[in-house]
TrEMBL record:
Keyword annotations from UniProtKB, A to Z: Hydrolase
UniProt name for this protein: Serine hydrolase
Lineage: Bacteria, Bacillati, Bacillota, Bacilli, Lactobacillales
InterPro entries according to UniProt: Beta-lactam-related, Beta-lactam/transpept-like, Diverse_Enzym_Activities
Coiled-coil zones: none
Single GO molecular function: hydrolase activity
Organism from which the protein derives: Secundilactobacillus paracollinoides
Record-linked SUPFAM superfamilies: beta-lactamase/transpeptidase-like
Top-level lineage group: Bacteria
Signal peptide: none
Amino acid sequence: MATYSKTIRDMHALVEEGVVPGISYAFIDDNTVQSGIYGAEQLLPGYEPLKENQYYDLASLTKVVGTVNVILQLVDEGRLALTDKVHGYLPEWTDTTVSVRHLITHTSGIAGYIPNRNKLPASQLHDALLNLHVGPDFEQKMVYSDINFIFLGWIAEAITGTPIQQLIAQRVLEPLKMAHSTFSPTDAAMCVPTELSPTRGLIRGVVHDPKAFVLRERCGSAGLFATRDDLVTFEQAILSGHNSPLPDQFRQQIAKDQTPLGHQGRSFGWALLPVNDAHPHQCIWHSGYTGTAIVLDLVTNQGLVFLSNRVHPDAPNKPFLARRNAVIATYLEEK
């Protein structure tokens, strides 16, 4: 097992150089896990050191930890097909070209502007999203968008009659015994805070993402809170295939490009890391706006959990992105 000394050094540097307040991390090698924490959970309005077993707002990791697995389970059960058109489940969406595959690979081309989007009540935001249009990027370009996974959540709800966040709890969190994962934290003090917002104050124990904040249980793009150790449980299930929330037929395909044109760098929800001399086979990964990321290597049964609160105290903290990518690159070289 690697010691990951260079990766740990680079993660510590993020804290020491003020890029993020603190980090929680874990390296997975089959059944062996090396984990740690470093830095602070909060800087403002007062300093608080980071503690073990705290909950992080996972932001877009919700997509691959939750929604992807629900959708592919429904496909595996024969209740949905990747070729099915969105219009068949969401008739208010009048376009008849966009399919489930387009949504799950971010190749739908859905575009448009919603005035005051983050201030609309849930019903109005729902209607506004369904009145967006398909632009010229349709099928030709991978353009990452929360809207794709919001639509996927609504499709799952249309099939089952159950909101997507409840489905994620029932179909992913409970079977894996991820008891420290929830969409509704009961103790804000156990949650790592995100942004110190001029309008919302210190956001702690409540989802940071504005669309998820409005749509609540009907949002499949963000909203999940989890501990580092629960994410280790999730990654080990995917890596081993034991009690995996990802159906086996899709587990065999998850590290391959699944876009309509076959070369746009996206699998079922997951992003594909570049293959190069240092790392000659395909790994998958995903990140979250709040400063979270997970990496999986299904060939070597290795994984990385990286959690920070990048948006505390201020968003968007753009310098973080290049530094996070560098940490992942170091990890891939070192593992």
